[in-house]
Amino acid sequence: MTRAKLPAWVDYGLAPLLTLAAALGASSLAILAIGENPWAALSTLAGGAVGDTSGIGYTLYYATNFVFAGLAVALPFHGGSFNIGGEGQAYLGGLGAALVCLALPAASWWLVLPLAFIAAFAFGAGWAFVPAWLKATRDSHVVITTIMFNLIASALMAYLLVNVLIAPGQSAPETVTFAESAWLPQVTPLLASMGIEIGPSPLNLSFPVAILASFGVWLLLWRTRWGYEIRAAGLNENAAAYGGISLARTTILSLCLGGGLAGLVALNEVLGAQHRLLLGFPGGYGFAGIAVALMGRNHPVGIFLAALLFGALYQGGTELSFDMPDVTREIVVVIEGLVILFCGALESLFRKRLEAIFA
Amino acid sequence: MGMWDCMTLETPAVAFVGIDKRFGAVHANRDISLTLAKGSIHGLIGENGAGKSTLANILYGYLSPDRGEIRIDGQPRRFSNPSEAIAAGIGMVHQHFMLVETFTVLENLILGDGSRSLREAKASALATLARLAKDHDLGVDPEAVVATLPVGLRQRVEIIKALHRGAQILILDEPTAVLTPAEAEGLFTLLRALKAEGRTVLLVTHKLKEIMAITDHVTVLRQGAVVGTVETRSSSPAELAELMIGRKPSPPRRELSAPGGAVLEVRNLRVTGGDGRTLLRDASLSVHAGEIVGIAGVAGNGQSELLGALAGLLRPGGGKVALLGQDITRLDGRERRGLGIGHIPEDRLRDGMIADMSATETGLLGRQHEPRFNRPLLLRRGFVLETVTGWMRDYDIRPPDPGRASASFSGGNQQKLVCAREMERKPALLLVGQPTRGVDIGAIEFIHDRLLRLRDAGAAILLVSVELDEIRALSDRILVMAGGSIVGELSPQEASDRTLGLLMAGMEAKPGTEAA
Amino acid sequence: MDELVQFVSILSATIRLAAPLVLAALGGLFAERSGVIDIAIEAKMLAAAFAAASAASVTGSPWIGLLAGIAAAVALALIHAYACVSHQGNQVVSGMALNILAAGLPPVLATAWFHQSGNTPALPSEARFPALDLPFSALAETWLWLDLLWNRLIGGHNLLVYVAAAAVPLAAFVLYRTRFGLRLRAVGENPAAVDTAGISVVRLRYQALIIGGALSGVAGAYLSIAQGAGFTRDMSAGRGFLALAALIFGRWRPVPTLLACLLFAWVDAIQTRLQGVEIPVIGFVPVQLVSALPYIVTVLLLAGWVGKAKPPRTIGLPYGRPR
Ligand SMILES: Nc1ncnc2c1ncn2[C@@H]1O[C@H](COP(=O)(O)OP(=O)(O)O)[C@@H](O)[C@H]1O
Ligand SMILES: [Mg+2]
Fold it and tell me: A with B: how many residue pairs have Cβ under 8 Å apart?
């Protein structure tokens, strides 16, 4: 069964927008149930996200996380694995980055930052390796094992942060603040030094890294033989085996690369914004990655656009919870779930109608 | 039999009136009208993709027509579900069996029985089984788990299922595809007996011989439309064949081969299934350069395992495989391809192509590592595209659009794409499984011609097919498989239906056969 | 004697911890036997826990709470059915959507309704299912062994524990002895066979998912109005996934699934006791790591022995006739 071909602008533009509209419509119902005015809520949300330079900075800062988290789902998805483990992989990525920064407090930035980058990627990839390996060799259910690894990761990190890495003389479970050489430059001061004044935000150099990562994923998947093998294995296991493609290899490769990308969330959060490792820092970005990937149709360009949108939702959601105390930030999680439902599971509902019109 | 004249006066058991059905862009049934006389065996014949199964499934209520009407005993009926067709006395044996394999025969029989308690349903099914075993020699163990039954018996269960539900009109869709010639003869005996009981049979097939052997009337479909309904007695195979394909079939050109040295040598190859059953038992054979060796046999007798083990897709449980004198037993599929093995798989959609990828990308499958298609890091996409475009021209693949999704090509064009990919590697050994399954006549003739050309160019070809005519037409030597073993070797001249049939049924090894 | 009391109290805790797992896993069993992946057990439990606690808190009746829990879980099951059965959507994706939805919605509603940042108010005891005393409990108390057996191990649990216990034989009966069960097992193996036998695949799967939803709903209500006294954020804590793992480990059969649930519950029961206890050789095991024990066991089980378990043959594959 294949689907009729839709014009690209419908497939990548109109369809996601329709699903977004449906998700926002459904969340309006939730806001109504709370007894607030959905229109007021949504306009507060939009204003918070793009209303001023600081809001835009925050939006892009959140979007950076979503790009990494979305790619972390999309790349394995092309290889036939559903990676639900972004949350734990990001957490471990943070550990990797933090360990480098804590171990080299006096080193200069050109040593620390690349090493921290590599460690974040490697730790994330490593945390994905076990479920990947179990899927490849023992056919374990990767959805369940990656979820378990999220839970195990939070237990492990809680232990490390409470008992081992905690800053001396501190009661909150977090590490010491890193030396400034390990801080990724932020955009606001950078622009200020060039004479451009924008509002404060934690937007930092991870943002261009995220763009590069998107490009890299695209290049890998659609321009190299390894990417071809990953996609072939994801679409038809039998044919892949027939074509001399090792399923174990594509599974492990795609999941580990995905884990590494999830680990890069730490680049933005730990090295770019917080400059120390906090308990629970991935804060749901890993799960949001699922929505971002599905909405972006697992294509880097789509993911980038979906990440911008989710960045706006997050930033706007924060504003919203300030303005309307009865609306908590979790409303964004509700929208996330609805987006996954409409884009991922109920996709055919919209497609059938669109195909009737456009194909 | 002379029943035709009086039958026409009766109300037909089934009348299709102006049935039309599309699947997206495919027009599967075009304004089909035909009638089945009560108590007759009616043949429905046509090439692959002619729309036979679609029409049969519409009668069974499994598919609903876009337009048109079905009349049972003269009454217009609208079946939106098989349950309604079953209630109207229609039974169907599908091309792909509709059995729950983990269930016993009895459980399969009572599955659709909704009107009484389980206990009563069981008792009634057992009674049916006993009656059919007595009356029609249709014995089968009610407690046997279907997965353990050979295909012939599974089909028997399907027939019993239909009869148990009281089918007066029985549809059989390509029933002989899975049977040995002897089993097929047994089936025909049964069908004649059912006809004698007054039941109506719709026999769907693409084999002329069967039509001639058993039907009273035959309707020929071509590209979804009826091109003729005739009385079988007054027709001939040649006339029907011409109706089917719209022209005279051209017999394949055949010259004698001049085999060279051995390319493939297999000794005592053994494959064991996951459940410990031996699926391929000590197969030994050789294929020489410039030779086509055909493997005949009923589907499921170890041919797939033989191909899989030779292609490096299944781990053999023992034995030795050598290619051009080099031991390749331990090599995996990729390494074997590298040494010059090409493979046209039995099921192209499952193994041979990636339906959701473009024709270009399907054209790369299995060849993605060849240096000619790669730069150090990136694929040479332009060159791949150029190559596949060339194949589309040389193999007349239509539409010649390499960017189209592979799935959207017709069966024949998909198969030609797979053939091009595998043949254009100039393999020393080409493994071929069911090369013309689900392929139209034009493509069949084309593929046969290409296989012979490749042979003449010196390739060694191992051909597995369940179509005996195909095996006979192409092979220089014929091996017969039954029960996971190679049970005999014949020359094409010796290979009559009868001899082959006996061997395929595992009844008798041909005297004087050397185990190849 | 102390050790005996200790032992019995671990067993008794095992039973109490197993009950929601058993209910949820049996719910999943119905769904998955019908051929629909049930990755959203967690969502259904969480939603049911919240709905049950909210309703019980407002009405003061555990029964209304239970019904509300079941209704919430069935509602999610119906969304899943609509997406995956009616519209042939991706079952894993739909399940994850529900999981995320159910993680987000309760805190939003709780904050708005109860102004308690993600929780419901603590329930008074009459709004919960109390521990039940079996008949003759006073009599049994006179002899320690009998007291332990009758009042601590068999008795002394809340009603829903007994519901869970009864659900296992009941599920086995339905699955293996009724026409519905026969069809349910068939539809997961070969939906086309069921369809061509004249039985509606869609209806069967909806029925299976509704039963699954109801059982998961009881499991969720158990968490908030029987075991606990009110809803707290993320209170299911991965139990839905443990139930799914138990179901897989139990090879989609009721009794082995029960045993797998008991195993998980036992690990859970001893982990509470392991915290702060010194183990020979290893020494003190940190609390946080001990709490990860059930998850680690799940991974080991899925990796070790389940590799060869055969799921229903067509699980995860949407079914529809060509049109
Ligand atoms: N489910 C389907 N979706 C799209 N096309 C179909 C489907 N089923 C059959 N077809 C197409 O309809 C035509 C008739 O198919 P079928 O009735 O199976 O032919 P036959 O039984 O004569 O070989 C073929 O071209 C086939 O590809
Ligand atoms: Mg057919």
Answer: 73
Spatial neighbors of A180 by CB under 8 A, at least 6 apart, are none
Task: Tell me which residue of C117, C187, C164 sits closest to C261, measured CA to CA.
Answer: C164
Contact A340, A294 (CB under 8 A): yes
Q: Atom 26 in ligand 1: which residue has the minimum CA distance?
A: B49
Determine contact: A301 vs chain B, CB below 8 A. Answer: no
pLDDT tens for each residue of B154-188: 999 999 999 999 999 999 999 988 888 888 999 99
Is the model's pLDDT at B8 over the cut of 70?
A: no
Closest residue by Cα to residue C94 from C41, C46, C39: C39
Q: Where does ligand 1 bind, in terms of residues with CB under 6 Å?
A: B 23, 26, 28, 46, 48-54; C 322
**Residues in B touching A224 (Cβ below 8 Å):** 377-379
Interface contact flag, A241 B374, Cβ < 8 Å:
no
Cβ-contact C98, C43 below 8 angstroms: yes
> Which pLDDT score, from 0 to 100, does residue B507 have?
67
Contacts A327 to C, Cβ<8 Å:
108, 111-112
| Phi, psi angles (nearest 5°) of residue B236 | -140, 155
Q: What digits encode the pLDDT tens for the residues B336-389?
A: 999 999 999 999 999 999 999 999 999 999 999 999 999 999 999 999 999 999
Distance from A4 to chain B by nearest Cα, in Å?
9
**Nearest atom within ligand 1 for CA of residue B47:** 22
pLDDT at A112 over 50: yes
B24 touches chain A (CB under 8 A): yes
Tell me how crowded residue B145 is: count the other CB atoms within 10 A of its CB: 15
Q: How far apart are CA B63 and CA C31, in angstroms?
A: 27
What is the per-residue pLDDT for B516?
Answer: 36
Instruction: Give the whole-number percent of chain B exceeding pLDDT 70.
Output: 96
Give the pLDDT of residue B373: 96
Residue with tokens 């394909």: B245
Segments of chain C with pLDDT less than 50: 307
Q: Name the residue among A155, A336, A338 with its Cβ closest to that of C289.
A: A155
**What does residue A266 show for φ and ψ, rounded to 5 degrees?**
-65, -30
Per-residue model confidence (pLDDT) at position B182: 84
B180-230: pLDDT as tens digits: 888 899 999 999 999 999 999 999 998 888 899 999 999 999 999 999 999
Of the candidates C71, C38, C83, the one whose C-alpha atom is nearest the C-alpha of residue C212 is: C38
| Interval between CA B91 and ligand 1 midpoint (Å) | 21
How far apart are the C-alpha atoms of C126 and A241, rounded to whole Å? 61
C-chain residues near A144 (CB < 8 A): 241, 244-245, 248, 298, 302
Q: Which residue has the higher pLDDT, B242 or B19?
A: B19
In terms of Cα–Cα distance, which of C269, C226, C245, C261 is closest to C32? Answer: C245
Is residue B251 reached through a cis peptide bond, with omega within 30 degrees of 0 on the bond before it?
A: no
- For residue C54, list chain A residues with Cβ-Cβ distance below 8 A: none
Task: Give the separation between CA C28 and CA C34, rounded to whole angstroms.
Answer: 10
Q: Residue A34: closest CA among chain C residues belongs to which residue?
A: C112
- Domain range summary for chain C, segments of one domain joined by +: 2-305
User: What's the pLDDT at C289?
Assistant: 82
The atom of ligand 1 lying closest to the CA of B95 is 21
Three-state DSSP class for C68?
helix
Which atom of ligand 1 has the smallest separation from the CA of B56?
Answer: 17
Query: Which pLDDT band holds residue B510 (cuts at 50, 70, 90)?
Result: very low
Q: Where are the alpha helices (DSSP H) in A178-236?
A: 187-193, 206-223, 225-235
As to burial, measured by CB atoms within 10 angstroms (0-12 exposed, 13-18 middle, 19+ buried), residue C27 is buried
Domain boundaries C2-305, CATH class: mainly alpha
Question: With bands split at pLDDT 50, 70 and 90, how would you rate the model's confidence at B333?
Answer: very high
